[in-house]
Design a protein that fits this description.
The chain has about 250 residues and is α+β, with helices and mostly antiparallel strands. The chain folds into 2 domains: about 50 residues; about 180 residues, 3-Layer(aba) Sandwich (Glutaredoxin), CATH 3.40.30. It contains 8 helices and 5 strands. A hairpin with a 2-residue loop joins strand 4 and strand 5. Helix 3 crosses helix 7. It is globular. The protein starts with a helix and ends in a 6-residue tail after the last helix. It comes from Paenibacillus forsythiae. GO terms for molecular function: isomerase activity. Pfam families: Thioredoxin_4 (PF13462).
Length: about 250
């Protein structure tokens, strides 16, 4: 009799195990849903709101570098034109800006030897495109404020492997750090994706000229093989010597 009862108890336990596991799955699902409702859903919404190049319509004609559309520093009659191709999420771009940009501006831009341009090569992720379009929106209001945006955004750069330059982040960042612009206009431009076509155009043009990463530099139309300060300096000095000028 006892053996029979033990056998029935074991059978009931075997049938009960799947039910216990199923219950645990339900509990975990409810807990996950609670977490998403409390915090993750907002983050998911931010990710879903990021732009894609495929969403941007319009015909892009690659027939020049379109210097006239790019933010710039320096004298328009400088003998050498330098373009920096960069992505705001790129750690190497941040390092170059923090380490070399001010020295480069002092040695070559302020002396009248170089006119220095910034061109988007937003390739890392979707928030690269958004950060670039924010820069374009600021540039349309003020060339000087654009360069302020460049320096300060690199100083506040997030992890390359994470989505950090969301619409929410950029709006707060600009509001807190960039004075002297029409913020309401900027906010509208960012939310409306007003300058995403310009970012995509920059990307297509850069790629057509051989840019495949960032930062990259072009000196009088010639793309440099590496991005070291020494290589950039050598290329500029060569152009200045060939043009018979050491500045104005």
């Amino acid at each position: 009799m006892k053996n029979s009862q033990d056998k029935k108890s074991k059978i009931r336990n075997l049938y009960a195990l799947p039910m216990v596991l199923a219950g645990l799955v339900v509990i975990l699902a409810v807990a996950l849903g609670f977490v998403l409702t409390r915090g993750g859903a907002g983050e998911a919404g931010e990710l879903n709101n990021l732009p894609n190049y495929t969403d941007v319509k319009g015909t892009i004609v690659v027939d020049s570098l379109k210097y006239e559309k790019q933010p710039r520093l320096g004298a328009p009659n400088a003998k050498v034109k330098v373009i920096e191709f960069a992505d705001f999420k790129c750690p190497a771009c941040r390092k170059w800006t923090q380490t070399n940009m001010q020295r480069f501006i002092k040695d070559y831009v302020d002396t009248g030897k170089v006119e220095y341009y910034f061109m988007n090569f937003a390739f890392i992720d979707r928030d690269s495109y958004l950060a670039a379009s924010a820069g374009e929106a600021i540039y349309r209001q003020s060339n000087g404020k654009f360069w302020e945006y460049v320096v300060k955004l690199y100083d506040n750069q997030g992890d390359e492997s994470e989505i950090w330059a969301t619409e929410k982040f950029i709006l707060k960042f600009v509001k807190d750090n960039i004075d002297g612009i029409d913020y309401a206009r900027f906010e509208q431009d960012l939310k409306s994706r007003t300058y995403m076509f310009d970012v995509k155009e920059d990307f297509k043009i850069a790629a057509a000229y051989g840019v495949n990463g960032a930062p990259k530099f072009m000196v009088n139309g010639a793309l440099l093989k590496d991005s070291s300060y020494g290589s950039l300096k050598a290329a500029i000095d060569k152009q200045l010597a060939e043009n018979g000028s050491q500045g104005n």
